[in-house]
Design brief:
About 25% of the residues lie in helices and about 25% in strands. Strand 4 and strand 5 form a beta hairpin. The two termini are about 35 Å apart. The protein has a single domain, classed as Nucleoside Triphosphate Pyrophosphohydrolase, CATH 3.90.79. A six-stranded mixed β-sheet has the order 3-1-5-4-7-8, sandwiched between helices. A two-stranded antiparallel ribbon has the order 2-6. It has four helices and eight strands. It is α/β, with parallel strands linked by helices. The longest helix is centred in the last third of the chain and has 16 residues. One of its GO terms (molecular function) is hydrolase activity. Keywords: Hydrolase, Magnesium. It comes from Lentzea jiangxiensis.
């Protein structure tokens, strides 16, 4: 598997070729006027007691889940896998998609599509990335004062999706 695409690289390459030649603009400048959206992939990882694994970033004041922003031409699933390797030193087989959440612009950050995948159960994970101060396992309600309200809502939906087997779509953490 390539770092950019989590599926079979040969199948992906064949799919790209099947699309045909690169699309050209029929009206110059249309593409450059389009909104720039970012995307991110993360994982809901729990321990055997059902607590959620949070990373403790050194570069911001709140906890987050393992994962991060996609790089150029990288899928959200591939970004989640890459970030889990970088942050935790783990190679996990990600489970199904649990939540797609749109978040609005926040300061310098563009609006974003956040994808949360099932990261399964991992006990005793440790931080391997110098950008992290550590990891902590917390019940979701315990984490509430240490995470953004939208992340709390998103993870509540992710846990519900895990139980029901049906992915959820949300906007700013509120199911639509």
């Amino acid at each position: 598997m390539s770092a950019q695409h989590a599926g079979d690289p040969a199948t992906f390459a064949a799919d790209v070729l099947d699309e045909g030649p690169a699309e050209l603009e029929h009206e110059p400048g249309v593409a450059s006027r389009r909104a720039v959206k970012t995307s991110a992939g993360g994982a809901l990882i729990r321990d055997s007691r059902g607590r959620v694994l949070f990373v403790v970033p050194g570069y911001k004041a709140v906890l987050d889940i393992p994962g991060g922003m996609t790089e150029d031409d990288e899928s959200p699933r591939a970004a989640a896998l890459r970030e889990i390797r970088e942050e935790l030193g783990l190679t996990l087989p990600l489970g199904p998609l649990l939540v797609v959440d749109w978040t609005p612009r926040n300061g310098v950050w563009h609006d974003c599509h956040q994808f949360v995948f099932d990261g399964g159960v991992v006990d005793d994970a440790v931080a391997c990335d110098p950008e992290l101060e550590g990891v902590v396992y917390l019940a979701l309600d315990e984490a509430r004062p240490r995470i953004h309200p939208s992340l709390h809502r998103r993870l509540t939906l992710a846990l519900a999706a895990l139980e029901s087997g049906a992915p959820r779509y949300a906007e700013f953490g509120r199911e639509v």
